[in-house]
Amino acid sequence: MTDATGPEIWFYHLERSTLDQVLPELLGRTLQRGWRALVRVAEERRLEDIDERLWTFREDSFLAHGRADEANAGRQPILLTQSMENPNGAQALFIVDGSELGATESYQRCFIIFDGRDDTALTGARQRWKDLKGQGANLAYWKQTDEGWQKAA
């Protein structure tokens, strides 16, 4: 749900799990809501890794998806990209590996996923939080606990 300041922007601080474990779960929940998703990455190599992972993350299922540089990108429920565009009309934006957030007005929710065990990623996420908070963004911070994800701010 959006408010006057834009979409909800949720920070996911990975401490116990990897992106490969968390991203498919969050994407699955996004699809269950009836939303489309856009996963924005900074590097081509990461795009390739996520592409492969979404086809193989479980033996009994996969997450249908495509890449923005392929035909029919706009028809994909999950789209992987390095671009700032939203060709599939996604309601959920996933930012990984410090990729740029860009304009967020067209999204209902943005997920900024970062590895808390990586000092560079942690520093970048803290700065991004500070900048967005200063802009009046609708922020939430989720951290991993032994019981699962807990909203901490």
From TrEMBL:
Signal peptide: none
UniProt xrefs under SUPFAM superfamilies: DNA polymerase III chi subunit
Example GO biological process: positive regulation of DNA-templated DNA replication initiation
Family annotation (InterPro entries): DNA_pol3_chi, PolIII_chi_sf
Domain of life: Bacteria
GO MF annotations, alphabetized: DNA binding; DNA-directed DNA polymerase activity
Pfam family, one: DNA_pol3_chi
Protein name: DNA polymerase III subunit chi
Origin species: Brevundimonas goettingensis
